[in-house]
Each structure stands twice: as C-alpha cells, then as structure tokens.
Amino acid sequence: MKSSESKIVSAYFLFLFSVGIVVLPTVGIAWDEPAQRLNAGLSIIEVAKEISPSLIPENYEEFTQDSWIKNAPVDHGVAFDAPVLILEHLLGLQDTRDIYVFHHFMNYLAFLLGTLAIFLIARFRFKSWKIGLVSSTIFVLSPRIFADAFYNSKDITFMCFLALSSYFVARFLILHSKRDALIAGIIGGFATDIRVLGVVQIPIVILIALVLITSNNEKYKRLISVVSVYLITFMISIYVFYPHIWKDPINRFWSSFQNLSKYNWQGKNRYFGNDIVASDLPWHYLPTWMGITTPLLYIVFFLVGLLAIARYLMPTLSNESVAEAKLQDAFYTLMFFVPLMAIILLNATLYDGWRHAFFIYPYFVLIATVGVVFINGYFTKKKVGKKIFYSCFIGYFIWIGSWMVVNNPHQNLYFNMLSGDKISTKWEMDYWGLSNKSALEYILKNDPSLAIKVREISFTPLEVSGKILDSKDRERLIFNVPVIEADYLVNNYRLTTKLASEKVTLGFEKVQDFMIGGEVFLTIYKREFNSHVSSED
C-alpha cells in the first residue's frame, strides 16, 4: 500500500480501537465468564504442578475452592483464557470489576485482530485495500458479533484466530510459501485449542491441495512440501497449546471433539415460541438463527456472492489472476458450508442462538463481499445506478451503525424483520444475562438504601452480573434472597412465561421496562409499600 493508503487503514483501526474503549465500561458480564476464568485457572494449576508447585500463586486457591468446580469444562481449550489470566495476575488485579473489564479489553483486542484478518483476506483476494475496508466494515457492523466481541472469549476469539489462520492458508496455497504455511499451522492449532472445531480447516486444505496437485499444472507440485509443513505445525501447535491432552493426546483430543459435538447440556431454547431441549433441535435451527439476526442487506450480498462464485467456478479459466480468485473463493465457500452442514448432519447440541457457529461468519462476510463487488461491477457503466447503489450501501452502513450506537450495550438483542413480531415470546433474548447490569445500575441509582435485596425471577445469573459493578455498589446489594424478602425482582424473561411472572410478582409494582425495537427484554419490580407476598421461593 502507498503511504496515504496505509494512513487511512491505520486511522480506521485506531478508530475501532477508540470505539472499543468507549463501549468497554458499558458492557455487562456474561453468564459463562466466571466458568471460563475458572477453567483457565485450573489448567494453569495443573501445568504448574507438573513443573513446580511453587509457581502456583497464592490467590489461585480461589479456583480450587470455587463452588462451580464440579461443573468446570476441563476439556474446553484455554489457549486464550489462560494467557489472559496470567496477565491478570501479573497486573495485580484483585477487584472483580477490574478483572472482568480487563478480560473484556483483551477479548476486544482479539476481535480487532480478527477484523484485521478479514481486511487482509479481502485485500489479498480482491487486490484492493478499499474492498478490504468494506469487508471489515461489514464484519464490525454486525450487531451480535460486535456485542460478543467484549465478553465471549470462546466463540469470538476462536472465530478471529481461525480467520487469521485462513489468511495465511490462502497465501501459501497461492504463493507456495513455507513461511505462510508455518504461520497458518501455528495459528490454526492455537484456534483449535480454543474450540476443537478448528480442525475442520485441515480436511478442507487437504482437499483443495489434492485437487491442485493432481491437476496438470506443474507449479502446484511444490504444494506437497508446503502443505506438509502446515499439517505438521498444526498438529504440534494443538499439542503445545492444549494442556488437557498432554498426557494422552489422541484419546483426550478425540474425547473433547465428541463432547463438543454432543455436549451434555439439557437446557432449553426458545425457538418459534416453543421451549425445545438443546439436544433435540430441528435441522433448521442454525440457518434460521443466522437468517433472523444478520442484517438483511448482508444476506442479499451473500446470496449474490454465492451466485457469482458458482457462475465462474464452473468453467475452466486459464487467466492466472482469475484462477487465484477462484481458488480463494472455493476455500472460503468450503469453510462456510462444510462446518455448517456437519453441525446440521451430526445434530450437534446447540443453544444460545447460533454463537457456536460464529466461526463461519468471516467466510459469510467474504462471500458477501464478492456479492458487493459483483453488484458494483454491474453498475460500473451505469452512472445513475452506481450512485443509487453507493447511496443505499453507505446509507445502510450508517443505519446499522446508528442502531448499534442508540442501543448500546444491547447489540446482542438485534433481530432483523425476518424474525417477525412478538420477538420476545418467540426467540431467546438475553440468554447470557448481559442486561442485568443495566437493571442493577437502575436500582442502585434510584434507591439510596445501604442494603438492597434483589432477586431474579427468570433463568439468569443476577449475582454473577453484580461482579462487574463498582465495589461500593456491590456492597449495597444482597443477592439470592427468597422472593418474599426481596426489595426488587428482576425478570429478563428467559425460560419463563408471562403468567408465571405475574404470579411471582404479586405485591410488587413494575417500575421499569427495558425495551428494544418495541419489545420488552427486561423488567424491574419493586415491593409495594407495606406489601406482603405469600409465594414460595
């Protein structure tokens, strides 16, 4: 890139960093975050015991005494969470707010790295830094992805590192660079040690390499040694960054893979108004969730991109630049559809929307970018049409961005018009309890009492949510009290009905509804003066 172009790109990413700093204090805590931190702590302790028990910090006793320890997902990868936990210790962070804000900051840095990966992939594919910025902007202006960028250290970080590995895969497939193969293998293994589904990249790379190697083009014969470097590095990287498998690599990794595909979670998902057990979902659960929570214009671009790719992948084209584009598009299309179909065909356990499949979203974005370029090419010689396309395209970016600003920090509740009406009764809303922070802040702001008894009346972790509040505010709150003793009730409507809520809230008055798009997703009830509630806890 030229100096002026580099400055624009640098300014773009500096702006994204600044946005993250502004949003960071507003973000709540996700239900799984303490469990993720616990799992990282237990892994660090096990590794330290093997090397030297004296390396275990004294304050790590909290992990061995944690009440959640029996439910700790010890086979879950800690490649990202463990280093962050070590940094937390080195920085001397003690207060829970400081701890989780720091974790959110590190998670957002990983998200920025993933955004950079998408920029690099698109620039490499389209030979244009401008298209790279278009692609990365589609990615960032995806409300649910952006929301999770702060607190989801599993699905978002996995997605970002796998995307970065995919960039180097594309490079070594085209440039036959062993250096790129080495980097792709290291990062791919690291990503797999966050979510074991990262191994899906290996058979796709092998398939593409075999097609190229068995072709009549002699230049692809060199790929054998390059792909070998990638595979060997990938395997070594998996082993190095995954302490759980050190003692029995093959069996433990296979067990982790099986556990992920058939995870023993018997909770329920609200889907089309019905509460369905996570292990018994219909095949269309995943594509439906993707369809109703992705901005509509992006879906249009994706469909156009698929048609464009199908159109020029069919004939054999000799032009080298076109052949390189075809190769990359084939790789990204496979990276999108192979995992998607595998999840559906294996009837994998899914819950909390489609977050477990977030890792295929970068490839959705790249295919959508093909659609953008195709439409732009169609209007190239039609000045009026091109102006209309640019206006609609930029206008949509502005609209989505404005929606995200207005509804901060609740971008995780974005639905498009395909979701229909009565969204809160048909679909999972705030499944991780992020909005509980807003409820607790409202209560603290409007009630000066030194001791406030609060209780959740839906399936949500209210006490966990309090960990990210200021210490003085946390001291004023008393959690887990019986309903009959509570001063306030909080309802985020997860796995509860309106009728059940009305019964529990007798003797309380509704003081605040939190709404998004006309839908209530959180309600606060306050005990009526001199009231007494005769209900069971």
Structure, described:
With 537 residues, the chain is of the alpha/beta class. The chain has a domain at 436-527. The chain has 22 helices and seven strands. The protein has helices at 3-23, 33-51, 61-64, 81-90, 96-126, 129-140, 143-151, 155-175, 178-192, 201-213, 223-240, 249-261, 285-293, 296-313, 320-345, 361-378, 383-406, 423-426, 436-446, 462-465, 471-476, 498-504; strands spanning 268-271, 274-277, 452-456, 477-478, 488-491, 508-516, 519-527. The strands form two sheets. The chain has a five-stranded mixed sheet. A two-stranded antiparallel ribbon has the order 1-2. The longest helix is centred in the first third of the chain and has 31 residues, at 96-126. Residues 532-537 have low confidence and may be disordered.
